[in-house]
Amino acid sequence: MHSKILSDMFVLAIPVAEKILRPIAVYVFLVIGLRLAGKRELAQLNPFDLVVLLTLSNTVQNAIIGDDNSVTGGLIGAATLLLLNYLVVRFLFRHEKLDRLVEGDTATLVEHGVILEDNLAKELLSVQDLRAAAHKQGFGDLQEVESATLDPGGAICFVGKKPDPDEQRHRQLMERLDRLTEEIATLRLRSAPPTS
């Protein structure tokens, strides 16, 4: 009985070479597939994209493990994925042009406060998606945004508009007025006759 359990847990049902090649093939397919699907898939901006990413892992599970449900087979598959990812990341770090080809370039979505509709369409993002991402980063409205870019990893980075010179002058005047008010209050307290 115990030998059957141990055999089921640790004896491989398929050759080790196949256990190593399966995760490599699935990894390469997913990297290419996600690159072709665009940065939006990585950003997880809506429930549909999240569902796709969650079911994708379940869909390729059998392709990775094959007919083998052993612990040893799972460990070999996981180790292969981790090692392959480590090697790919190190290789791409040293080869910037290839990294840009695999990951893609940054896409500008807002420039000088103007929403670039063509770039949004190219990335399959709507103005509502952009607005929701801006709200998550603390912007009340897209009119507060000077620029926005979609990074290769799927993150949208926003830069807020700087206040115009009139607003800055107004703020400086108000700060000076507040300091003067405090100084006058301090002087009044000092010059007030002592109460007995």
Main sheet properties: 4 strands, antiparallel
Please give the order of strands in the largest beta sheet. Answer: 2-1-3-4
Mean pLDDT: 84
Number of helices: 9
User: Which H/E pattern describes the elements?
Assistant: HHHHHHEEHHEEH
Report the end-to-end length measured between terminal Cα atoms.
Answer: 99 Å
Number of strands: 4
Structural domains: how many = 2
Low-pLDDT segments: none
Structural class: alpha+beta
Question: What portion of residues is helical?
Answer: 55-70%
Quaternary state reads single chain
Explain this structure to me?
- By secondary structure, the chain is α+β, with helices and mostly antiparallel strands.
- The chain has 9 helices and 4 strands, in the order ααααααββααββα.
- A 4-stranded antiparallel β-sheet has the order 2-1-3-4.
- The longest helix has 27 residues, at 165-191.
- The protein starts with a helix and ends in a 5-residue tail after the last helix.
- The model has no long low-confidence stretch (mean pLDDT 84).
